[in-house]
Specification:
Among the domains are: 55 residues, MYOD Basic-Helix-Loop-Helix Domain, subunit B, CATH 4.10.280; 113 residues, Aspartate Aminotransferase, domain 1 (Alpha-Beta Complex), CATH 3.90.1150.160; 35 residues, no CATH class. The protein contains 13 helices and 15 strands. Strand 1 and strand 2 form a beta hairpin. The radius of gyration is 28 Å and the shape is globular. The protein binds pyridoxal-5'-phosphate (PLP). Pyridoxal-5'-phosphate (PLP) binds next to helix 5. Pyridoxal-5'-phosphate binds next to helix 5. InterPro entries: Glutamate_decarboxylase, PyrdxlP-dep_de-COase, PyrdxlP-dep_Trfase, PyrdxlP-dep_Trfase_major.
């Protein structure tokens, strides 16, 4: 063995046993990406390496793109940590967790005005991983119920359809595709970003399994008019089911706008979903599905899990899942109560209105409804009157420099030419954080405008001169980075071919 080899061997041995993370060999090696590492690593090193790797994620508190909860109290976090090793499907092992799920469902059924028979609530439901799972279940239930009715009448049951606006969240298109249901879309327009109730009801035919209505669209946070859909159906003598996608609004409207009619108070509303991990104020991993009564849950979709001699209704796509988020939801419900939720949701609504005013002052067009008529969400776009050449995507990018994640995106199908930005006002987005954002937006606009003026001056100088082009503008390394003579130049567009030709 050569001395060098000997040296490197003893070095690597000493590094394996090294007690400081960054002096260990692990800090000088790539992290395992494709296969199991041969040997173990010390737990503190593994922890540190992964924690360090994750710093390149965005900061959840500055992520204004997401509806999903990013703040919970320490006590809630403790409960989550303490119960994440309980699999809530084990009814026999964890009866208390199962009971807490039922308590949450009872509280939600009451909040959503479940019908009562002999003083007993009729609604049934289940905890899910999120609204997507809840929507899958509700869609399956509507399809099955429609099929059963059609078959009982001796009619064809092979071509089910569902009516929704183009403003739906992607999980609706998923549900339709996964379960072979035709989507009948009510288009949004450049001035209406929600469903048109009359158009929706006009689309109903004998193959319609239901209409989806959104309480708070992801685009603008606006509420679709569930009552208008319900009333039009009744007027026409149709018993078409309505499912309300209250992923966000289910925990907002009852507190900020309690008179709004959207839930089981409306006769045709048969099922509702809500995300516990959005305005339910729980970390991601919890949603709820509720049906008006067991009549709307076809029996063949229910599995009975026998628990100590008592039948437990089970109707989910997933089997195992932690009890932690159900318990965290219950914590929020009893910790905050109606007053706590009302205080938080009112503050958020107020902050959203304040942000709206500030953005309008800066010249933006705001597309969301304020004043608690929709979610505390502010969707906005640059106004043509501002005469900027840059777009919302550039502004979004600029804000990222300060850590803010404010997404730019295009509107739903049929008005996808319209680009916009959105701020979701969440619990910890306080007035003072809002002030910082407003300041940074103003700064970003000024910086982008200044950059634009500088670019225009450069382009003006460039045209008519024989300046060298930056290499980066040429795709081919070998191309001569020289502009063709001005008279041969088609405008100032430069693409790879022109570079090669030059
Ligand atoms: C977020 C959202 C969903 C999907 O919910 P998850 O809880 O993320 O699965 C569905 N519909 C609407 C309107 C939403 O906002």
């Amino acid at each position: 063995m050569s001395p060098i080899n000997h040296f490197s061997k003893s070095l690597s041995e000493s590094k394996t046993s090294c007690s400081n993370v960054y002096g260990s060999r692990f800090a000088s090696e790539h992290m395992p990406c494709n296969s199991f590492p041969q040997e173990e690593m010390p737990k503190d090193v593994a922890y540190r390496m992964i924690k360090d790797d994750l710093v390149l994620d965005g900061n959840p508190m500055l992520n204004l793109a997401s509806f999903v909860t990013t703040y919970m109290e320490d006590e809630a976090e403790k409960l989550i940590a303490e119960s994440s090793n309980k699999n809530v499907i084990d009814h026999e092992e964890y009866p208390k967790s199962v009971e807490i799920e039922q308590r949450c469902l009872n509280i939600l059924a009451d909040l959503f005005h479940t019908p009562q028979i002999n003083g007993k609530a009729t609604a049934v439901g289940t905890a899910c991983i999120g609204s997507s799972e809840a929507i899958m279940l509700a869609t399956l239930a509507m399809k099955k119920r429609w099929q059963n009715e059609r078959k009982a009448q001796g009619k064809d049951a092979s071509r089910p359809n569902i009516i929704m606006s183009t403003g739906v969240q992607v999980c609706w298109e998923k549900a339709a595709r996964y379960f072979d249901i035709e989507e009948k879309m009510v288009p949004c327009t450049e001035t209406r970003f929600v469903i048109d109730p009359a158009q929706a009801v006009d689309l109903v035919d004998e193959n319609t399994i239901g209409i989806a209505a959104i309480l708070g669209t992801t685009y603008t946070g606006q509420y679709e008019d569930v009552k208008a859909i319900n009333d039009l159906l009744i007027e026409k003598g149709l018993d078409t089911p309505i499912h309300v996608d209250a992923a966000s609004g289910g925990f907002v409207a009852p507190f900020v706008n309690p008179k709004l009619m959207w839930d089981f108070q409306l006769q045709n509303v048969v099922s509702i979903n809500v995300s516990g991990h959005k305005y339910g104020l729980v970390y991601p991993g919890i949603g709820w599905a509720l049906w008006r009564s067991v009549d709307y849950l076809p029996k063949e979709l229910i599995f009975n899990i026998n628990y100590l001699g008592a039948d437990q209704l089970n109707f989910t796509l997933n089997f195992s899942k932690p009890a932690s988020h159900i318990i965290a939801q219950y914590y929020q419900m009893i910790r905050l109560g109606r007053r706590g939720y009302t205080d938080i949701m009112s503050n958020l609504t107020h902050t959203a209105d304040y942000l709206t005013d500030q953005l309008k002052d800066q010249g933006f067009v705001v597309m969301s409804d304020g004043g608690g008529h929709g979610l505390p969400v502010v969707a906005f776009r640059l106004s043509p009157a501002q005469h900027f050449f840059f777009d919302e995507f550039a502004l979004s990018h600029k804000l990222r420099e300060r850590g803010w994640i404010v997404p730019a995106y295009t509107m739903a199908a049929d008005c996808e030419k319209m680009s916009m930005m959105r701020v979701v006002v969440r619990e910890e987005f306080s007035q003072s954080r809002c002030d910082s954002l407003v300041h940074d937006i103003q700064f970003a606009l000024q910086a982008l405008a200044a950059q634009e003026i500088q670019n225009i001056q450069r382009y003006q100088a460039l045209i008519g001169s024989q300046l060298a082009l930056p290499k980066a503008l040429c795709v081919e390394q070998s191309c001569r980075p020289m502009l063709p003579a001005p008279e041969k130049m088609p405008g100032i567009t430069v693409n790879a071919r022109e570079c090669v030709d030059a």
